[in-house]
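ok so for the tutorial part 2 we go from a plain amino acid sequence to predicted structure tokens. step 1 is just haveing the sequence, like this:
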Amino acid sequence: LTWLAYVAYDLFGYNLYRRGTRVNPKLHHVLAVANGVAFYSTLCVLIAPYSYKWFGAATVPVLCLYGIATVWTMQNRRFDEITVARYTVSAIIFLALIPAIQFGGFITVIVWSCEALALVGLGVLTKKGYIWQPAILIYGCALGLLAVNPNAFHYQSIGGFLPFLNERSIAFVVLAAALGLSTYLLKRLQGQKVRFLWVQPGRANVGMVRHFMAYVACLLVLVVLTVDINDLFNRFMSGAHGNDLALLGYQRFISIALAW
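step 2 — the prediction. this is what the tokens look like for a chain of 260 residues:
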């Protein structure tokens, strides 16, 4: 109730502190963020004794509320850009939390990649940096999740391995494709100085982000080709001996070199 009351005050009593009152706008934003964090933390504590998987279901209505609030603040001119950005980023955070809670592993990477691509497209279309810039952080989280996955570079159960027809390959390809498409979409902002969330206005160019994303996409393609070919030959070599083993090792080396 406290959380809903503060959100209602934030949305409908917004102009109260802008009309001569002594409420500090910065303090108001800090309290609004703290209110959301406290509510969601309490919600997780209450749900935890029953089932961890219920966190995702509980996050959906919270996401819907913040999504509605985002649309409301965008369409209402009396809200400043910081308030709109706060609700937008909050909705994006909850959007990213749901697949992380419900799925995990390579499926989360796939969903995150699709979400980030959609955010980049929407951010470029609306020219709102606070929409597409969080997508870069989501891409970073997806890369980090890939890096720590025990099956990312070597499948543990190699017996039924199928090259390029497995969750790992799909996750790598979808992430690489999303990064590549995002690079193309961000080209529309090329040459424009933008305000980044972590850099002072006018100090960073979109081109730097595009180049980095393009390099990462190429690297992902190279990695997935290498690890899939390597695991395929590991499967063949699991029952080989002597000259057959040496021949397969040589063929693996040649196949990886050709793929590169």
